[in-house]
Amino acid sequence: MRCLHCGAAMETRRENYHYTASGLPHVTLQQVEVSRCPCCGETEVSIPRIEALHRAIAAALARKPARLAPEEIRYLRKYLGWSGVDFAARMGVTPATVSRWEHGTGPMGNTADRLLRLLVVHQAPVQDYSADLLAEIAEEPETHAMRLGLDVDKDDWHAAPLSAA
Question: Percent of the chain, pLDDT > 90?
Answer without folding.
Answer: 45
